[in-house]
Amino acid sequence: MDNSFGTIFKITSFGESHGKLIGIIIDGVPAGLDFNLELIQKELNMRRPGQSNLTTSRNEEDKVKVLSGIFNKKTTGAPICLTIENKDINSLPYEKFKKFLRPSHADYTALIKFGGNSDYRGSGRFSGRVTAGFVIAGAVAKQILQKCNITILAYTKSIGDILDEKDYTLYDYKELIDLREKSLIRALDSEKSKLMEQLIIKVKNQKDSIGGSIKCIVKNFPEGKGGPVFNGLESIISKAIFSIPAIKGIEFGAGFKSAQMKGSEHNDPWVIKDGKVQTMKNDAGGIIGGISTGMPIEFTVVVKPPSSIGISQKTVNIETNKNVEIEFSGRHDPCIAPRVIPVVEAMTAVVLLDCLLIEGFIPKVFKS
């Protein structure tokens, strides 16, 4: 089981959904950087459960604690260890249903892989709960990227068949943040947000769940970073994004629409604007040949509907080896997409900062 990610800015995730705590170890951060714990807590608050009636009723405070690597509000250069406690835990439903394989959960695959030794409570290491550590690491990376004027913003693009097709690339970053924070589901279009919220409430009342998609936009990332073949930015970003439970697809720029386009439609013409080489549009999503073009990096991810639902489903009793039908109880999100947004931003930040460090792009903040 590989629980670490990154080369220079390296993170190691630990903890389980119903264990004592969730945490992250971050290595590769130089000494002497200002450490903004309030910013980290703000990012965690975006992801935490129990935010509204649109999310799970599990209510975790998710207060971050510093165990190492920080002294006098600055980094020491040592590994940074940050944790949050699991407090609102109810493992009884998982004990009750442990002999049944929950549809579309990792129960069967974990059983085969680990021989019944993995923590099944709340899905253990397979739970979205572990992404709280991802958000912590991403918040640290963001603090450094922001000093380089690199911004990352993700928002809810769709819930079910309700889609926001507006192009927000030219909007001001702070304006988009303000729009997003006015929405319970972190959408940018207020009318679409209401429709999405109504759909989530509808499926929740039906004891069902619904999927969605998230758009991510990165601005001011320098050109020429990344590489061809296995070192491509798309490859590394995709691996990081697929480490998030519930992600089932990713597309950059025009993405899957490219299959229906002609080359004359998809190609991004080069122009000189304000003395810089740019493209007239951005169907490439800011990456060509695995290398950044200097245009905004844009990608969209697909978030599947949560597998935990209150409807009776067919499954298998692994003790009797018989087919059964059962209704699983528990506290579940009817739609996970809005809570995945800070996780998408976080893993993107981790990848981009690590890329800059590998390439020798040393921000002024790193210089003594």
Descriptive report:
The chain contains 9 helices and 18 strands. It has one domain: Chorismate synthase, AroC fold, CATH 3.60.150. The two termini are 37 Å apart. By secondary structure, the protein is α+β, with helices and mostly antiparallel strands. The chain has helices at residues 37-47, 92-96, 107-114, 131-146, 173-181, 190-205, 233-241, 263-266, 337-358; strands at 4-5, 10-15, 21-27, 65-68, 70-71, 74-75, 80-85, 151-159, 162-163, 212-219, 247-252, 270-273, 276-279, 287-288, 291-292, 297-303, 313-317, 322-326. The longest helix has 22 residues, at 337-358. The model has no long low-confidence stretch (mean pLDDT 90). The strands form 6 sheets. The protein has a 5-stranded antiparallel β-sheet, with helices on one face. A 5-stranded antiparallel β-sheet has the order 9-8-10-16-11.
Key phrases:
23% strand, 9 helices, 368 residues, 5-stranded antiparallel sheet, alpha+beta, Chorismate synthase, AroC fold, 18 strands
